[in-house]
Task: structure prediction
Amino acid sequence: MIRNGLLTISRMQMHLPNHIMSAFEQTINVLIKFIELYLHEPVTHDPLLLHNALTVLNHIACSVDGQEKLFIGRVGVIEIAIEIIHRFLIKKTSCEIVEVAWTLLWNITDETPENCRRFLEDNNGLQTYYDCLELWSDKRDLIRNMLGLLGNVAEVKELRHHLVTP
Result:
């Protein structure tokens, strides 16, 4: 059922983007529910489901700005992306899912200082960055996405002090 729902949302997003955007909040909430089910059900699901849900969230994040990006941050997408990254850090395995999670974080922090703050201060994002850099320093695309997010943080004057060590 989860797979079919994600496929439907993916198809709508690709072929009828206005329909997805007209139900923006509902779409985000459904995607979050899919991901939470994936992460917290005792049943093992196909990792492609998680990848697809994150990819759709990322496409939506690229299509919005302002209040919509703030909404994405407020409803817990930052926390979910970091939880996913932490799961792979614990396993010490990297994959496209980690890359998509960082891409999503990069996109929802772009031009959105509150989401940058939420990533950095509320979710210990800098430590997540360091942990990923230590484990996956050879993954160029992943590092690019991580640095893109830090670039967004660096654009927020009030947060720059987090990026400098005395």
